[in-house]
Structure formats: C-alpha cells, structure tokens
Amino acid sequence: MSNPSSSARLAALVLSLACGSLSVLPMQAMAQAASLPDAASAPAPVAADASVPAPMAAAPVSKETVENPYSLGHTIAAGDWVSRGTLLILTLMSMGSWYILVTKLYESLQMSREAKQVSGKFFKSKSVSEAAHSLKEGTAFRFIADSGLEASEHHEGALTENIDHNSWVSMKVQRALDDVQSRLQDGLAFLATVGSTAPFIGLFGTVWGIYNALTAIGIAGQASIDKVAGPVGEALIMTAFGLFVAVPAVLGYNWLVRRNKVTMESVRRFGADLHGVLMGARMGAPAAAR
Predict the structure, then answer these.
(1) What would the 3-class secondary structure string for 101-157 be?
(2) Is the pTM of this model over 0.85?
(3) Is residue 33 part of a domain?
C-alpha cells in the first residue's frame, strides 16, 4: 500500500500544475492580441469594383417649350363664327387703315416735292403754255395749270358770254383746287370710321367671349381659376385687338389732316399766281395787238 502522505503530496503537485497551465493561457492570448494591428484603425484595402460606373459628362440641357393654350391662335381655332367674324372685320379694318396711311403719306410727300420744283421753274418759262407742259403729267399742279389755261383760251359760247373772263378763269382754277383738295381727303373718312368704331367692335367680341365662357362654366358646374382664366383671357384679346386697330387710325387721321392743310396752302398759292399770270397774259395780248 502506498503511503498516505505521498499520495497527498502527489495530488497537491497535480493541482498546482493545472493551475499554472490555466494562468499561462490567458497571458499568451493577451500577448498575441497586443501584437496584432488594430482592425478598426487600419485602412481597409480598396478593391476595384467593376459595377461602379465611371463619371459621365453632363448631358446638354434641353429647353422645354410649353404651348400657350390661351394665345390668339388658340382663340381663332377654338372660337365660333361670331368671334372669327369679329377678328376678320378688325383685320380688314387694320389692313385698310395702314394702306391708306402709306399711300397718302407718299402722295403728300410727292406733292411737297412738286411744289418746290414748280416754284423754281414754272414762272421762269417764256409762256404759260410752255410752263404748263414743263410740269409732269398726272400731277396736281399740271391739272390746275391745264384747267386755268383751257379756261383762258376757250371763253366763248352763248352761255358764258355774260361772264367776264376774269370770273370765268377764277371759277375754273378754284374748281381745280377743290378737286385737288377732295383727292387729298380721300380715305380720311375711312380712317375716322375705323378710329371710332374699332374699339366697340373689339368690345363686342369681348362681351360675346365672356358670355360663352360663363355658359361653359355653368354647364360644367366648376368655377376654378383654370376654368375662368382661359375663356376670359381669350375674350379680352378682342378688346386689345380693337385698340390696336383704332389707335393708328386716329393718329394717322389727325396727322394727315394737318399735313393736307400745309400742302393745300402751297397749292392755293400756285393757283393764285397762275390766275395772275393768265390775267396778265390776257391783258398783254390786246396791248400787243394794239
């Protein structure tokens, strides 16, 4: 049999060895952990990812065009025969006004140039007949000169024998002046009519458009801003168009009236000078005969 004391010593030795091994393992683990780099602080390797696309160039910005649903073209396309007829009438009035303004301006400028030419060369001619033929045919001054010359040369007949030569030539020259003035005033009545009626025609189109808009709103049963703004805006275009037609007509009428007065002053002076020349030639002819 073994000695109890030796057995006790053997058990104590085994227990001490086991405790030593257990104490050595935690120390080794801690040393290994201290020797390794910190995974949280170390930068992670970046791997090339083929799925990430490369930065692309900026695409050109395209400007989107939004069509205006309340334009004049939409009004014409969606309007009824009353609104289209109103626009047609205003368009014709505008075209007629501008045609008259351009043509009368050209005519007035032409007569002003002719007046300067007449004053320079007409009364320097040797005879009235030669002076009349020196003027351009179809002009107002040539018409007045031919009328006065014809009256001076053809004062005969039983019906005109009681009228003296001076009064006969004066009447002919005055009638020619009146004809020229009437020609200058051609188209002014149209301008006055357009200037006074175009706003009311545009207003009629506005009233008709608003009536149709309110009727459509009443049928739809909705009075939101998109239901009201469009039809009412289309109706107000008529008023703006009427003013666009009327304002140039009124301004052109006033300007032409003023310019015609200035032009007729030069024409009347020419008529008075022509009458004096014809009477002087009439008086000089009998004196030469005597």
Answers:
(1) HHHHHHHHHHHHHHHHHHHHHHHHCCCHHHHHHHCCCCCHHHHHHHHHHHHHHCCCC
(2) no
(3) no
Return the sign of the alpha-carbon dihedral for residues 138, 144, 150, 156: positive
Per-residue pLDDT of the chain (290 residues; tens, 9 = 90+): 445 555 556 555 555 555 554 444 445 544 454 444 444 444 444 444 445 455 555 555 555 555 555 566 666 666 678 878 888 999 999 999 999 999 998 888 888 888 887 876 777 777 778 877 878 888 888 888 888 888 887 766 655 666 777 888 888 888 989 998 888 888 899 999 999 999 999 999 888 888 877 777 777 776 666 666 666 777 788 888 899 999 999 999 999 999 988 888 888 888 888 888 887 755 455 544 44
- Position 143 in a domain: yes
User: SS3 for 50?
Assistant: coil
Residue 218 is assigned to a structural domain of this protein: yes
177 in any annotated domain: yes
Residue found by looking up tokens 């009228």 in the block: 163
Tokens for 63? 């400007």
Residues 266, 233: Cα–Cα separation, whole Å: 51
Name the domain count of the chain.
Answer: 1
- Is residue 274 a contact partner of residue 173, using CB atoms and an 8 Å limit? yes
Provide the residue range defining the domain that includes 182: 83-155+166-283
Q: Which residues does 259 contact at the CB level (< 8 Å), separation at least 6?
A: 108
Contacts of 203 (CB under 8 A, 6+ apart): 238, 239, 242
